[in-house]
Amino acid sequence: MDRLLQIQCHFTWNLLGEDVDIDNVEERLNDQIVFLPDALKHRMYNLLAYLKHLKGDHEEALLQLQKAEAQIQESSESEDADVKRTVMYGNFAWVFYHQKQFMKSSTYAEKVETILKEYESPPKKNILLLDIYGEQGWTYLSFTGKYYQWAAECFEKALELDPEDPESNSGLAMAVYRMEGFSFSSNTENKSFPLLERAVKLNPTDTVAKVLLALKYLDIKNYDQGGMLIEQALQEQPESPYVLRYVATFYRRNRQAIKAIENF
Question: Coiled-coil regions in this chain (predicted)?
Answer without folding.
Answer: 51-78
